[in-house]
Structures are given as C-alpha cells and as structure tokens.
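User: Fold this one for me? It's DNA methylase.
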Amino acid sequence: MPAPYKTYFGGKNGPGTMQTQINHIPPCDVLISLCLGNDGMIANIHPAQLTILNDIDPQVIAAWQPWVAAHPQAGCYRLYNMDAVDLLRSVIAEKYDTPATVIYIDPPYLKSTRRSQRDVYRFEMSEAQHIALIEAALALKHARIIFAHYPCALYDRMLTGWNTTDYDSQTRKGKARERLYYNYPLTGKLHDYNFIGENFRSRERKTRIVKNMLAKINRLEPDLRNRILTELQQQAADIASQQ
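Assistant: Here's what I get for DNA methylase.
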C-alpha cells in the first residue's frame, strides 16, 4: 500500500530508498517507526506482530489512521502521537527494550546538513533535540536501532562503533547521499525478503529467479513437489539451528 501523502519531505519513497532500508531490517516481533512522517519503508514492509507508528505531529497520525484501518493486517498496527524522546524513555524502555524489537528512527534532518535551510516540517528539530534523541536511543539496552540521516559529524561522533551504510536517494533537488546507522550486524536474515537486491536490475533479476523456481516446483508431480518442499524446510531448520 502506498504511504498516505502523495508528496512529503523525507518520505523515503524514492526509487531504491525504501528498498535499501527494508533490506537493513532484521527479523523482529516488534517494529517501531519513531518519526513516522510519510514513511515509505513502513508502508511497504511486511508488518511485524506489533508495528508501532509514532509521530509528534497529530496531522501525520490523522493521515495514517485511514491507511491503518484499510490495511489487510490492521490489527498489527498501533498509533502513537508523542514526542520521540518521551516515547523512547517511557513506553519503549518499559515494554519493548528487547532483542526482538527493531526501532527505525528517521527524524527531520539537521538543517545544517540540508541544501535548504528553510523549515519544511511543522515540528523541526534543533541540534539539542537531535542530541537528546540519540542519547535516549543509546540508553536502551537490548533493542536493535537504526537511524536514517545525511552523513553528519554529530551522528558519526555520538554513534561511534555503529555500523553504517551509505546510499543515494532521490530528493526534490536531485540525488543526495544518505547514511543508515545501526547497532547490529547484517547477517543476511531479513524481516522481509521481497526487495532483496542492491539496485533495480538486481532486484528484478532475483525476483525473476524466484518466480521461475516456484513455477518449476509447481509443475512437478505432487509427491515429488512435497519431497522437495520437505527437504527445503529441513535445510532451513538446520541452518537456523546453527546460527
């Protein structure tokens, strides 16, 4: 389902952007979008058992309410209208600071890193607010956390030791280099495998391979098809037990 807004600054709906982000989300039972906006990643990823959508702007939450209501898995979603730091320090710290939680944080980027210095959000964030946000995230003990931002000295300094991935995104003013900061290793295990691939051609090639393999399996005699599926399930269980 497309995100609620047709246009929105920083919505991560450009070609390749949300796919790159989804390919950095490991398996999780709880998935949290802390600064929701028009989050293209959340709009396209398979929901977790519990998917928490939060934004400080009540207009954003109002825009997402019909989206959630219309979603085939609407029961997986919970909406919050809170300051991100307050939510981290209260509900998330008390209930969801576990290894089964992934927290995706895509705040309004520091103005000093943007091409334009004008306000584009109803709730902009100062440098002091970014520092408070990072400190609140660092205070969590177990949750896996991923930040999205432009490459930035403040984030580089405060998130020293975290893994990073740089990628190109399409903005209203052309291509921009963005960076993901995350406190967990990439193991190849994903929450959603529907967008695997480093770029458009790679994703198309892998999707075509999957479809062709499934078509071949479906054409087999039922007993042979079931034998292959059983073997694949056993191999998957063996691999999981070794990790």
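One thing worth pointing out: The first strand starts at residue 30 and ends at 33.
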